[in-house]
Design brief:
Number of strands: 7
Number of domains: 1
CATH class: Alpha Beta
Distance between the termini: 36 Å
Structural class: alpha/beta
Strand content: 25-35%
CATH superfamily: Vaccinia Virus protein VP39
Radius of gyration: 15 Å
Oligomer: single chain
Low-confidence stretches: none
Shape: globular
Largest sheet: 7 strands, mixed
CATH architecture: 3-Layer(aba) Sandwich
Length: 195
């Protein structure tokens, strides 16, 4: 696994051993950033369920100003910190060891995020109860952390969101299938935070 483009292009990313994380494959990651295009430039990024950090680090390499990485697994955090340091992004990164579903309880940053990556383990979207909770949670993040016209990128098993409406202030701007996985890009409209 490596950084695809930007200042750190070609630099290697390590993955945690075992099946604790499921890094997005390189073709899908490249497609995500093709969809985001210049929105990454100078963006403040929040990478929920960061794992090895491949999404947030790719954003930093492509010109994002700063990235908050949320990861709770200690072993995975060690790999993430190594990836941040090896790619010289320590000054533009912050690791938050906290459950992504409870981030609103501790979030104290005053500047809103422009891009949020939401790439939890597949079972969160596979299960109808936790899927509904994810959708509600994303709506809350959109209202309280993300600025108006900010973007959220969701990654889940193909078809897992079929028939599940997203909640205001979010609306779908892209929904693409790549093999067995699906990417949905949501835009925040009329967030409580506006610049």
């Amino acid at each position: 696994m490596k950084i695809i483009a930007g200042d750190a292009k070609g630099l290697k990313l390590e993955s945690p051993p075992g099946m604790q994380t499921r890094p997005m494959n390189i073709r899908v990651r490249e497609s995500v950033f093709d969809l985001l295009q210049d929105k990454v430039q100078d963006a403040l990024v929040l990478d929920l369920f960061a794992g090895s950090g491949s999404l947030g680090l790719e954003a930093l390499s492509r010109g994002a100003r700063f990235c908050y990485f949320l990861e709770t697994c200690k072993e995975t955090q060690q790999v993430l910190v190594k990836n941040i340091n090896n790619n010289h992004f320590k000054e533009r990164s912050k690791l938050i060891s906290y459950n992504a579903f409870h981030i609103l309880k501790i979030w104290q940053e005053t500047e809103p995020c422009q891009i949020v990556f939401f790439d939890p383990p597949y079972h969160y979207f596979d299960n109808p109860i936790t899927r509904r909770e994810c959708v509600q949670y994303l709506g809350e993040i959109a209202k309280k952390i993300t600025q108006d016209k900010g973007l959220m990128v969701l990654h889940y098993r193909k078809g897992a969101m079929a028939g599940m409406p997203v909640l205001p202030p979010l609306h779908i701007i892209e929904d693409r299938v790549y093999g067995s996985t699906e990417i949905m890009v949501l835009e925040v409209k009329n967030s409580l935070i506006s610049l």
